[in-house]
Write a structure and sequence with these properties.
Number of strands: 17
Structural class: alpha/beta
Distance between the termini: 24 Å
Strand content: 15-25%
Bound molecules: pyridoxal-5'-phosphate
Largest sheet: 7 strands, mixed
Length: 410
């Protein structure tokens, strides 16, 4: 029987890079991390890269550096991985959810951002936006580039400028994503990447903050390493035995040189990895267009480059004649179960974060408060996709989708 995973990392000569690091005797954050940071930052046209132990710690570090805390709000799309709102919550600030678009961009709805600001906040004379029910102050917006497609950054930036808010890009899925050939990472104050095995490249676990702001980069570097800083006098005298000073509460969110070695090897083939995934996604597009009318393919708006970190479709409930959300959800789950039994792994796209226990109970949110995110949660399906996936395996997935449909629909 076939065994097709939902994704699979692609390794070639990583072991040689790892060996070199082990033999050098320097395995913690060092030269290799610095080299990896430069490779990623230059690929994405950003000045500075700050590697971290994951994208979650990257986001957390970034929010600490932006100084948010108790009595601050940040707008977060509700259809996203739980790490996005969690990273705000870690600072004791409040993630305020906003619905996503109903289509298969799965991006945040810019009009929902506007509605949220206009309805939930009042504007004080100095321009600050105060939450009418909690008194919190709105500070910024997280734009999530979900599954490898950038959110509508033109609209989001317009809104942010109008209300004097910052924008942070959650680019966990979006290394290589572009809008009009401009890479992710250039649209907000900073962006955060993930190197988890489900993302474009992997270091096992790992993340990176990209920014072109030198002051921010230096602050992030210090906070990543316990808030360590070398004083100007120490720098001047350059004495190796002097310890740094610790003037702010930092973390140990460092990546290791062993992980960076893997990352360097992955970056050497990044364009090939993205190109191969893209070819395979386009093949799915062709097959689904002609053979599976009950699935809606992922959209790639004009001018956008989708990297297909995941190839995520939605059930076409009209074509299926299923108007009840719970019936359609059951249909999807049965399809996924059948595929699993035929050796094809699938997943739902991601979660509607507002429906997850922690947020539901902490903020008293109901599923139907963000209906598009709720639908995406219940009707999305990520099909297997990885650079080395064979043409035959793609056809097998499509064949099994058709068979599972026939079993339910006759
Ligand atoms: C994967 C993911 C993260 C978290 O990345 P880690 O490196 O696993 O911490 C955050 N946000 C989004 C949108 C993700 O898909």
């Amino acid at each position: 029987m076939k065994n097709i995973p939902v994704t699979k990392p692609y390794f070639t000569d990583e072991i040689n890079y790892i060996n070199e690091v082990l033999q050098s005797g320097w395995v913690a954050q060092g030269q290799r991390v610095a080299e990896f940071e430069k490779l990623v930052a230059s690929h994405e046209d950003c000045k500075y890269g700050i590697a971290t132990s994951s994208c979650t710690t990257a986001l957390h570090l970034l929010f600490v550096s932006l100084g948010i805390g108790k009595s601050d709000d940040v707008l977060v799309p509700s259809f996203t991985f739980i790490a996005t709102p969690n990273s705000v919550q870690y600072t004791s600030a409040t993630p305020v959810f906003v619905d996503n678009l109903p289509d298969t961009t799965f991006s945040v709805d810019p009009d929902a951002i506007l509605d949220c600001i206009e309805n939930k906040y009042s504007r004080k004379a100095d321009g600050t936006l105060t939450n009418k029910s909690t008194g919190n102050c709105l500070k910024g917006i997280i734009a999530v580039h979900l599954f490898g497609l950038c959110a509508n950054m033109e609209r989001i930036k317009q809104i942010a400028e109008k209300y004097q808010l910052w924008v942070v890009e959650d680019s966990a899925c979006a290394l290589g994503a572009r809008i009009n050939s401009k890479p992710q990472g250039g649209f907000g104050v900073a962006s955060c990447l993930s190197f988890h095995p489900r993302k474009s490249i992997t270091t096992g676990e790992g993340g990176m903050i990209l920014t072109s702001d030198l002051e921010m980069a230096e602050k992030l570097r210090s906070l990543r390493s316990h808030g360590a800083s070398i004083s100007e006098t120490q720098r001047h005298h350059n004495k190796g035995y002097l310890l740094p000073e610790f003037n702010s509460l930092g973390f140990n969110f460092r990546l290791t040189d062993i992980q960076a070695a893997v990352g360097i090897s992955q970056m050497n083939k990044i364009d090939w990895l993205l190109e191969e995934k893209r070819k395979k996604a386009l093949r799915y597009n062709e097959l689904i267009s002609s053979e599976i009318p009950w699935l809606i393919k992922p959209i790639e708006p004009i001018g956008y480059v989708h990297t297909y970190q995941s190839y995520v479709c939605m059930l076409n409930t009209e074509a299926l004649g299923l108007s009840s959300l719970s019936k359609a959800n059951q249909f999807r789950n049965t399809i996924m179960e059948g595929l699993e039994l035929s050796g094809v792994a699938t997943r739902q796209g991601t979660h509607a974060a507002h429906t997850l226990g922690f947020y539901r109970s902490k903020y008293g949110i109901r599923e139907e408060d963000y209906p598009n995110a709720n639908r995406a949660d219940k009707l999305s399906i990520a099909l297997p996709l990885y650079p080395q996936m064979s043409a035959e395996d793609i056809e097998y997935v499509v064949l099994k989708l058709k068979e599972e449909y026939s079993k339910q629909k006759g």
